[in-house]
Amino acid sequence: MPERDRHCTVMMDEMDIMGLVTYDQQMDQMLGPFKHLQVFLVCGIFSSWKLPVMFAFNQPVTKELFLDLIGGVEKAGGRVVAAVNDMGSGNLGLWRALGVGHDTRPYILNPADPTR
Questions:
Q1: In a domain? residue 83
Q2: What is the total count of domains within the chain?
Q3: Residue 103 lies in a domain
């Protein structure tokens, strides 16, 4: 993949899923009930690729999880230059933990490359 096509953004969304319970045939067990789903998707900026990289049930996004996810995308060859979300309450907590806010700074430094 050309270097330019590696530039990407991390998109995250939290969703309410109404206490979902499901059966996992491979594990032969019931999973749930789950009330929240967190999804992470990485999308190309200069090219039209997208890749789901993580989903988690009933798990808030912590600063460590988010920075590790960016580091993993970078290690796999992606060049993360942006992150976006719908500003749900859990996501607002993440941005506060990262020191991002309208009265502070509107960005974070990339943990894999502080020049970005």
A1: yes
A2: 1
A3: no
Three-state DSSP at 92 gives helix
- Rounded CA separation 47/65 (Å): 26
Distance from C-alpha of 23 to C-alpha of 16, rounded to nearest angstrom: 19
Tokens of 70: 């960016």
With tokens 């798990």, the residue in question is 59
| Start-end of H helices in 48-88 | 63-75
Between CA 91 and CA 52 the distance in angstroms is 18
List the chain pLDDT tens, one digit each, 116 residues: 899 999 999 999 998 888 878 899 999 999 999 999 999 999 999 999 999 999 999 998 999 999 999 999 999 999 999 999 988 888 899 999 999 988 999 999 999 998 88
Residue 41 lies in a domain: yes
Is residue 16 included in any domain, yes or no? yes
